[in-house]
Design goal:
The complex is a heterodimer of chains A (301) and B (301). Chain A starts with 14 loop residues before the first helix and ends with a helix. Chain A is mainly α and 301 residues long. Chain A has helices at residues 15-23, 26-51, 55-75, 79-98, 104-129, 137-144, 152-181, 183-188, 193-215, 220-224, 226-234, 238-263, 267-300. Helices cover 81% and strands 0% of the residues of chain A. Classes of the chains: A mainly alpha (301), B mainly alpha (301). Chains A and B meet through α3, α5, α6 and α13 of A and α3, α5, α6, α9 and α10 of B.
Chain lengths: 301, 301
Amino acid sequence: MHYLIGGLPPFTLNLWQDVQHMLAYDFMRRAMLTGTLVSVIAGMVGTFVVLRHQSFAGESLSDVAFTGALGGAALGFNPLLTLLGTTIVVALAMGGLGERLRGRDVAIGTVLAWVLGLGDLFLFLFTQHGSGRGTGFSGVAVLFGNVLGVSNAQMVSIALVSGLALLVLLVIARPLLFASLDPDVAAARGVPVRRLGLLFMALVAVTVSVATLAVGALLIFALLLLPAAIAQALTARPFRALALAVGIALVVTWGGITIGFYSGYPISVCISLLAFVTYLGALIWRWQGISLLSNMSKYTR
Amino acid sequence: MVITDAIGPSWDLVADYQILTYYHFMQNAYLAGTVVAIIAGIVGYFMVLRGQSFAGHSLANVGFAGATGATLVGASPIIGLFLAGILAALGIQALGLGTRQTRQNDIAVGAIFTASLAFGYLFLHLAKSAYGSGIYAVLFGNPLGIGDADVRLILWAGFAVVLLAIVSARPLLFASLDPDVAAARGVPVRALGLGYLVVLALVVALAVQVIGVLLIFALLVTPAAIANALTTRPLVAIALAVGLGILFTWLGLAVGFFWPYPVGFFITTFAFAAYVVVRGGRWLWPRWQRFLAAPPAEGAR
């Protein structure tokens, strides 16, 4: 990305003009659109991941995504297809075994360690026999994302896949919320808790796959979990938190892409650090708010 | 990896052994690998026991930022890894993230983890000279390229870790199994917890050259998980975890020497295969016993 920066317009204080300059480029329009799609689905799915305490599982899936994408690239398949296939299979396996295995963290950790080892092998195969770019650059792109390099075809498939996932999520949102907050009561009321859990794991897998293209496998946490965590630090009402998470994910992504465009730093780094700073800000704000409240109650008493 | 065209494995195991240990870099790899397997087995057992696998995963990832940051300023990656690891251990302890894995803790650990990966990538981006080769060595290790100075460092530090473990194993075991009772009996639970995290950071720093930050999990978690599936006695389990770690490392190095694929892949694959066999065996064994003990079915008479 940085090698393009020489011919790009500088940042001015006329923000509207800056945005126009930026969007004059084809690859920037694609990046913005892809980022928007990924943010919407990541914010929504992430809210439920945080509610269901599945952050470790979400993170493990990002490691699987790394191996899946590189495996596809090394063996000559479409990386997005292998990405989706492997993450969904592993997500279903984790969801299926998860409730029976007592030491869940350990089981996930063990599988994850092997999957990363497999990723190491694919990376080696890819850099040795990969066509064209055989410098391992694409390995870095999978690990850390390259939203500026998204092609038209990729964008269309991302739109289709995330649109479908969004539809499914909207249909199951209410029972899923019930099952996440109180699984026992939900089961007693006839909600298929187990099947919903499996379906949701598949949705997480899809989200991780599309997010891999935007921020890369290692930084998915920034888009999947941080906006949701920020939203839940600010409000306790679930559907408001859902909307807030999507909004924060969008702002962070658009902001990150813009900063990356004008500063020349990797975009995934800008997105992740922006999300991290926002998260810290939300924590401090909430902490201040709480101490303010307790002070007020002290004075009124 | 380079000279594999000249020699291959034969069925003459003595000759194979002689070839393996003939080269100086292989001697270094075996020495460093053995030490790392020993200390990772000990520390990993406690990590599983204390339910801190997520914290361990994060320490490894924070180490990535440390290693790349150190390369940026021209220092040895091990020093950067260790410093970043100590900082992360202090942070985890100060925020109380190492004790219970509640929702908020998972998110906080993951947030720090994402930020450190983003910083690591940013440092790599800034230090363009070390770009291509450095990143994969830090992420996946490069056991066949360990220098004499590093071997000496790993030996001394490993010796210190083993000594520490012998001295503090009993109180640490007590504090891990029942922190409340241990605290009541005068065991310094918090200090032990912090000391443990620092040692974990040191082990990760030492292991990075052998197996890399992404794959260290395989040596920390998998042997301990297998040992826990086979025995409930702590000291036997630690010995078993150490033995298994050494076995996987030796086998991985040997196969990686004769076969031109990454050593890390083989180590993680052997570890995972053993885990699957043990878990499968534990699942099958009681069923097989019941099958043998069951009276013949009605139709068989």
